């Protein structure tokens, strides 16, 4: 006991023990503690304590567990005795912020404290889940008995579901896949060079016209990207290179087929969404990143991290053809070049079938993924920041 406490004890009036009136009460520890408790503990006003309890309401954003904990602390000084649980139940019903839950509680017969707690907790959990689902923030699904979390609106997720499942946002009624997206900044038609339309527009003067440079249909010599006399194999070919333009339909067109692109392009090893993809083909004529269905299935099996996964959204056309190539959809993911650790976020189109994995010109330039790669005309092009192959 400290000096200050001893001074207080000397001045306290400690009544003697009635059973032993001759004993000095200041030598009895129990008497000393009782006297000090009465001195230091303020007098408790039960009416005021009950007022504080009966006016305690749930705060904005306060969880029900936190609110109930505050009520239990307040009711401990109210001296309700056997009525403690009933009074706590009543305060929860009257003090919660959700009027719909209060209505359900008031309709229940023989409502107990535990019933009120269970109803409030269930409503709180359900409301949070509904908000998450409506905002598209997090969705739980089960794959091979394992629960996995993924996000569908701008946040990272693991283990994406297959394209076309109900977890993906649908296009507005009456619009085709990808038509709900806003078009990017206007560009020029790659078929004729004019800026008042896009290549699929019926107004394009190049529709049905043969290029005098490469002999292909539907574009002029001035915008031709092929070599003179270039021919396209019509059977047994594999899509290797994609060229596109920015138009409301987000269409892309295949310019190189079969082994032609393989001869004029390099390959690098990358990671897509944290999963390695070896020997992805770089083509400076491509504006769209492509992976095959087999690669996509492999990435999913390794729990690739992707976002903005959508069914459809990109139409790919073989050069000179009006029939779109089959695609499953698109997603966005971080692409990392394994040779220099450069990284960028890129959109990837998934083909509905086999094919060569492609890296677009834009993505390759951001990665600086190879010492050089051939351009569409066969000339060598240095990555950004390099002029001699030795780095900046």
From TrEMBL:
Domain of life: Eukaryota
GO molecular function per UniProt: nucleic acid binding; zinc ion binding
Annotated Gene3D superfamilies: Acid Proteases, Zinc finger, CCHC-type
Signal peptide range: none
Segments forming domain CCHC-type: 188-206, 210-226
Region spans: Disordered: 143-180, 360-392
Biased composition (Polar residues): 143-154
Official protein name in the record: Uncharacterized protein LOC109472427
Species assigned in the record: Branchiostoma belcheri (Amphioxus)
Record gene name: LOC109472427
